[in-house]
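Hey L., structure's done. Input below.
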Amino acid sequence: MTTSAPPPRSRLPRLLAPFARPALLDSPPGNRRALRGKILWIGVWLVFLIDPLDDLVSGPHGAPARAAGWAGLLVFVACYLTLVVRDVTRPYTSLRALVLLGLMLALAVALPLGLGESWYVLLVYFAVSCAAALPLPYSRYAVVASAALLLALPPLRGHDPAWETVIPVLLGGFAMTGVRELVRTTVELRRARATVAELAANEERLRLARDLHDLLGHSLSLITLKSELAGRLLPAHPAEAARQVTEIEQVGRQALTDVRAAVGGYRQPTLDGELAGARIALATAGIAAHLPDEAPALPPEPAAALAWVLREAVTNVVRHSGARACHVSLTTRQSLQGPYLDLCVEDDGEGPAGASYGNGLTGLRERLAAVGGTLTTGQARAGRRGGFVLHAHVPLDDAPPGDPPKLPA
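Output:
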């Protein structure tokens, strides 16, 4: 049996990987791949050096001047990449940055004076480097000074001031300062969000620890004391020891009931949370979602019951209906027994087709009945093929349980 050789692996994905996942400006490259990607993304802007390159290739320069121009350009680009590839949110305060900027300034002045007006564009990159490396107040002054050099250098060679390059210098320099501030703000917001999430998690842990201590501290202490007492009574007073064991069992059962109630409260869903989850679930399934932006204020028990209903209904729509759209509404209605809140979930799918969606609806009816509510289901709309609608009604305020309000056909 012959086996075909595996197809050769293309190098194109590896070459394009740095472009697919570029390094961010707010972080230094952590490895060679990240460094390569960041240099490639920043190096795209070196395309504006086409004029100096064209001057080196086809300009009327001798061999020494051409060699000096190539060497100066390479050093200038190396200094530029060194200053910009780093984390631009933190200004350089070391002697290294000042040396690099001084070298760039010397080249940005010497090369135009020695080789011609095609080299004035170097001052644009010098302004960007100053904006990326210097502290913010000084970087603004450096950008303005770079623009002033464009007006002072050309007259030294008998040329008119390079007014057409002043605007790119100012735009490039101040754009970099704006990018630095934007990235710095983004980093601070990201850190603040992480801090808030950590504080919320710590607060939840403290609340859980406090509630468990309040629930179990007294019960476990009582169980310990009664167990010690029963151990002392066993040899001489078996009847009294048996009574203590019975009380220990009662305390343990009550503690178990309290813990289950507390855990149930922690797991209790919220209506706002389920609305957000329904929006994500429907969008993931490719179903057009029409949901209210927020839920009305409700007591905890009715709100939790409606949250369970919404979760189950949306799950049924996603898994079984094959619908293209789903409408969810929360409407306050009036009946003879008082105000009711009506949760309606309607889809345009195939409907239940004579079969129920498992035992979920039965469980929902039991949850709603516990808070005086009811659940009704049926065809979405009269005269319409397919579709399914679910109505859940819970009383508002202190309305007594009773028949649900009359709904429009």
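Residues 193 and 199 are 10 Å apart (CA to CA). Confidence is low (pLDDT under 50) at residues 1-30, 353-357, 399-409.

-- N.
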